[in-house]
Design a protein that fits this description.
Elements lengths: L4 H10 L7 H13 L1 H18 E3 L6 E3 L16 E5 L2 H10 L5 E4 L10 H5 L1 H10 L4 E4 L5 H13 L6 E4 L15 H9 L2 E2 L6
Parallel strand pairs: 3-4, 3-5, 5-6
Antiparallel strand pairs: 1-2, 6-7
Bound molecules: zinc ion.
Length: 203
């Protein structure tokens, strides 16, 4: 497959995806070319639809379809007035899978380190609004145990000061440098159960 510019271009793009190198990219492309109707065309359509219709909810930060209400914000199963703040959607999925937590989520979309204009990208203003508007009783900071994650948690704690909401943080026991999405269920459950209050209103 060397020296075909269109294919080389696609290899470069696919190699940028997580977990894929040039070798896997070549295999994927061959598979697509050999299955134009069954795979390549539906994938093109599907990518086009996702590109056109999927956007970030400006209230909670999750992904949503443009034409539908956000299922994260309007989840009728949620009974508790707690918001868990995570860095990305993969973190939310890990926490949901562990079944330790059934409240709302707020997805920052990264950490302060990768966002220079803090409030806009990380939706911190919208987090403050949610706390006030939805009468939230506790905010759990579930950012990673990395320097960036902890700096972000501290920044959010500071931003929420005026709301007087209870703020807690996942317990130590998270391995240093540990990213939420990579933790096993047992570690996550214990981190949630033993979470510590960060302000005077103890959890
Ligand atoms: Zn939402």
């Amino acid at each position: 497959m060397q020296n075909i510019p269109e294919i080389e271009e696609l290899i470069k793009l696919i190699s940028k995806l997580p977990g894929l190198g040039p070798k896997s990219a070549r295999r994927i492309i061959l598979k697509l070319i050999n299955n134009r109707k069954e795979l390549m065309q539906p994938m093109l359509n599907s990518l086009h639809n996702v590109f056109k219709n999927i956007l970030r909810c400006q209230n909670c930060g999750t992904l949503k379809s443009e034409s539908l209400n956000c299922s994260n914000c309007e989840n009728s199963k949620i009974k508790s007035n707690i918001i868990c703040v995570v860095e990305n959607i993969a973190d939310q999925w890990s926490i949901e899978n562990s079944s330790i937590y059934q409240g709302y989520f707020h997805i920052l979309g990264g950490t302060i380190a990768d966002n220079n204009n803090k409030n806009n990208n990380l939706l911190i203003d919208s987090l403050i609004n949610r706390v006030k508007k939805d009468k939230i009783e506790e905010v759990i900071l579930a950012t990673s145990a990395t320097v960036e994650g902890q700096t972000t948690a501290f920044y959010i704690q500071d931003s929420l000061k005026k709301t007087n909401v209870k703020i807690s943080k996942l317990a130590q026991g998270l391995p240093v440098g540990g990213e939420i999405e990579n933790l096993d269920d047992g570690t996550l459950i214990s981190a949630f159960k033993n979470r510590k209050g960060l302000n005077e209103n103890k959890v």
